[in-house]
Design goal:
- By secondary structure, this protein is of the alpha+beta class.
- The protein is 39% helix and 17% strand.
- Among the domains are: 44 residues, no CATH class; 34 residues.
- The chain has a four-stranded antiparallel β-sheet with strand order 2-1-4-3, with no helix packed on it. A two-stranded antiparallel ribbon has the order 5-6.
- The two termini are 80 Å apart.
């Protein structure tokens, strides 16, 4: 149970008392009243947080900056690893130069075969450009 500082409205003395969270809420809302141990007058809670200090750590034990650096480092390594796995394990299809199912040496030859048969040869042009 936390300790709270109180101040007597009658004699002005200050005391520290221990209250449960439920009792503290009751006193704060005015449902329950506290009495001074010496004069039995009404006692009010005095806000006295004491020395409230906090330190934001950095380094091995943690801290926002070091955690972000670790997370970004891990993500960069993970991206590289996933790219390698995809490259190694995902089958990528490769177009083989052909005309009507008959394999040809290159796309230019396939285009010439299509031209001889009077077919549209526009679809072969990008493939020829890619082939170099």
């Amino acid at each position: 149970m936390p300790t709270y500082s109180t101040r007597c409205e009658g004699c002005g003395c200050a005391e520290s008392i221990r209250l449960s969270f439920v009792d503290y809420e009751s006193v704060k809302l005015g449902v329950k009243t506290l009495e001074c141990s010496s004069c039995h007058a009404k006692v009010v809670l005095a806000f006295n947080p004491g020395n409230v200090n906090f330190v934001m750590k950095d380094g091995e034990s943690g801290g926002w900056q070091s955690k972000a650096v670790r997370e970004n480092t891990w993500r960069a390594k993970h991206r590289v690893e996933m790219a390698r796995r995809e490259r190694d394990h995902v089958f990528k299809t490769k177009l083989i130069p052909n005309y009507e199912g008959q394999q040809t040496e290159n796309w230019r030859e396939a285009q010439e075969s299509a031209r001889k048969d009077g077919k549209d040869t526009a679809t072969y042009t990008p493939l020829i450009k890619r082939e170099g």
